[in-house]
Amino acid sequence: MSESEKVSDYILRRLREWQVEHVFGYPGDGINGLLAAWERAGNEPRFVQARHEEMAAFEAVGYAKFRGTLGVCTATSGPGAVHLLNGLYDAKLDHVPVVAIVGQTARSAMGGSYQQEIDLHSLFKDVASEFLETVTVPEQLPNVLDRAIRTAYARRAPTAVIVHSDVQDLEYRPPGHEFKMVPSSLGSSGWHTEPSEGALDHAAEVLNSGSKVAILAGQGARGAQAEVRQTAEVLQAGVAKALLGMDVLPDTLPYVTGPIGLLGSRPSYEMMRDCDTFLTIGSSLPYSQFLPPYGKARAVQIDLDPHMAGMRYPYEVNLIGDAATTLRRLLPKLRQKDEGTEWQEELTASVDRWKEIMRRRARVSADPVNPEYVAHCLDSLLPDDAVVTADSGSSTNWYARHLTMRGTMRGSLSGTLATMGCAVPYAIGAKFAYPNRPVIALVGDGAMQMNGLAELITLAKYRMSWGDPRFVVGVWNNRDLNQVTWEMRAMGGSPQFVPSQSLPDVSYAAFARSLGMTGLRVEEPGGVEDAWRQALEADGPAVVEFLTDPSVPPIPPHADWDQIEATAAAIVKGDADRRSVVKQGFKAKLQDFLPGGKPHPSERTEEQEAAEESAAAGRGAVGDGHEGGRKEGRGDGKKAARKAAKRGREREKGEEKAQKQEAKSQGKGAER
Question: Which tens digit of pLDDT belongs to each residue from 392-450?
Fold first, then answer.
């Protein structure tokens, strides 16, 4: 240690000793001492300059999520500290280890209502509740920084270290061997938590007792891929995935039913509805209505955190432990379920049918481009080692339902906070974590206008930093805050409120070109696949935007014809886009009931014709301009909708019965 080493120098040195390689931040005079130390340290760890402190926090979260190590961000006092909050809350709610290093007004000015003086302990006391401390004298280091890092790892949470601006420039002095001094040490070994033997025996009894086992895997199962696969195969179970656990198992496994929840798949919904035994591994999915009906299934949970256990479902056994370690001890106690073969075959048939429905929905005509088709075309082009980030919005539906996780692909989003504007900064953090892998961010136009456009500047700034130049930002440009619009329609029964929902049409591709990057704008379906291909083959970052139809509905997996009809009735009340919405909604839902094969979108079934009658009636409801005409048209639309709904329900019952009979006969054939 040099005699002239300052507190700021020591902080950076300690970060290097903790093997921190990147710090995401934005400068300000509250951290001037740290910035000067970065200059003296030759920019090690590397300072990555975001356009906004919130983006710096998001980049740290993305880095930590994908790399599996600590994310670090930094900001000045006052406004810089305030800006960090949303990204830190994203880390808190998704259980991600992040440390924020924040400046503060000089000690001599504290309490004087000084410029940029904020009570940072009050500001951060919730988001950094696991560990929050202010460094006021050099001797508090390294203990404060070490505890912040250890706690972030151990609790999987954000922590914060506040350093007064004048303290940063003080000469560093380590704590002495005396009273009121707290020494520290570097590093922390790995560890595993395991449940008791008795709890494992009880869990095995529950899981062995059923014949229709459903597994829900979340991000906590990511380190236990082999064990989850083996468990599913022994129990003849299906595996649904929470959105944060999309990359836990590949979707190429026949018994993986895909995502669960409002953005999930029909096979996952039906599996949870029909199972008699339920195992949750590393997930805290909050939507209990998508889990088995209470009292219908015996259930077991595996979770590392006892604080998060037992609160999403009335589990019979809560196993507190690391997923991989717990499953390795549980597996020898499980009985091979030969009688569950028929159940797994039914699930496989359901998954195959769902994939066909998704293909059909993607190929339904729209004006100008079907948003599902955009994701559908990307799926087959994605490299097997791609890292994919998704934003919060209607585009999240298409990410969840149309992308096939395979190979070593990784994917993530803002799971619990579900905040807009995370995908591009997540992707930048991911690119620093994996500079030799392709990264793709999937974003809606609302999120791009919120902060994605500005963060393209960050992308342009660092584009020469990575070994693999592939970095693609895909934008769904539908000129609408579409997810909220559909929530208003489907959940609130309210028509679109144009003043809050309408967005200006911005050329994101042109903005990318102005920064020297590839920029592509697609306005018709024929250009979608080629645009993705060009973007993925570009020799640097590329932005490709698709003008998509906001009327294509993100239909929940449990939606039936009655719910579709009710939503249509609400829309006909006065939605500005009701003509297209009714038409696209029925066209999309009808794909659930078409028989096998691959019909061209121009082909028409009876149900499609009925849906068009309904849409035409809806058009009559809005085209007259007189109150009487609107009422009459609305009644005709409801009648046509009911007719289509009745036909659809009859077809659905018939096909479900036929599928079950076919699956049963296949199972008997396999036994023979």
Answer: 999 999 999 999 999 999 999 999 999 999 999 999 999 999 999 999 999 999 999 99
Strand, helix or coil for residue 92: helix
Work out the mean pLDDT of the chain and round it to a whole number: 87
DSSP H helical segments within 162-224, as ranges?
A: 165-168, 197-209
Distance, CA of 233 to CA of 241 (rounded, Å) = 16
E strand map for 67-107 = 71-75, 98-104
Residue 82 in tokens: 């305030």
Tell me the C-alpha distance between 585 and 142, whole Å.
59
| Residue 170: how many other CB atoms lie within 10 Å | 15
47 CB-side CA count, 13 A? 21
What pTM, to 2 d.p., does this model score?
A: 0.85
The full DSSP string for 379-445 is HHHS-TT-EEEE-SSHHHHHHHHH----TT-EEE---SS--TT-HHHHHHHHHHH-TTS-EEEEEEH
Q: In what order do the strands lie in the sheet with 277-281?
A: 256-259, 238-241, 213-217, 277-281, 298-303, 317-320
Look at the chain and count its residues: 672
Assess contact for 286 and 269: CB atoms under 8 A. no
Q: ∠ CA(622), CA(628), CA(631), 5° rounding? A: 60
The encoded tokens of residue 552 equal 């294509």
pLDDT classification of 487: cutoffs 50, 70, 90: confident
Q: Grade residue 486 by pLDDT with cuts at 50, 70 and 90.
A: confident
The per-residue pLDDT for range 569-584, each reduced to its tens digit, is 555 555 556 556 555 6
User: Which residues, including other chains, have CB under 8 Å from residue 169's CB and lie 6 or more apart?
Assistant: 6, 7, 8, 33
